[in-house]
Amino acid sequence: MNAPVRRDPAATLSAAPMTIDHDAAIAVFAAVAAQHGQEWVPSESRKFGANALRVGGKIYAALTHRRRLLLKLPPTRVVELLAGARAERFESGGRVMRGWITLAPDAADQWLALANEARDFVASEPERRRRSP
């Protein structure tokens, strides 16, 4: 009798075939999560925040379904990174999300440092009051 085959959950993240770039992105994002003391398990969900890291309940970094690093950073830092042409603005539902950028896996050497910046930035943001209904 053959033992059941165990599959790597990272290998089943999307219906699209995994490439080395995708595997590298998952590995680097997992390393970022570990460095920040967070347990992270890849999710197949396309819902915003499904593959996110949080500080104080707020998202500061995530791995997009296209295997790009999503970060929330201060506006001046966003402009700097966009000018360097390694980052792209993040769009959700056809709308550009201010303060959010994405980086491709080929910029993975910067992922940890930028995730640290994003975490510090989001942690220092004042709590927003929610409007009462």
State the share of residues found in helices, binned by percent.
Answer: 25-40%
Number of strands: 5
Strand order within the widest sheet?
A: 1-2-3-5-4
Structural class from helices and strands?
Answer: alpha+beta
Strand content: 15-25%
Number of domains: 1
The whole-number mean of residue pLDDT values reads: 79
| Secondary structure tally, helices | 3
Termini gap: 61 Å
Ranges with pLDDT <50 over ≥5 residues?
A: 1-22
The best one-word shape is globular
The string of secondary-structure elements, in order, is: HEEEHEEH
Rg result: 16 Å
Major β-sheet profile: 5 strands, antiparallel
Task: Summarize this structure as a short list of keywords or feature phrases.
133 residues; alpha+beta; 22% strand
Ordered list of secondary-structure elements with their pairings:
Elements: H1 20-35, E1 52-55, E2 58-63, E3 69-72, H2 75-83, E4 87-92, E5 95-103, H3 111-124
Describe the structure.
The protein has about 130 residues and is an alpha+beta fold. It has one domain (about 10-125). Helices cover about 30% and strands about 20% of the residues. It contains three helices and five strands, in the order αβββαββα. It has helices at about 20-35, 75-85, 110-125; strands at about 50-55, 60-65, 70, 85-90, 95-105. The protein has a five-stranded antiparallel β-sheet. The longest helix has 16 residues, at about 20-35. Mean pLDDT is about 80; it is low at about 1-20.
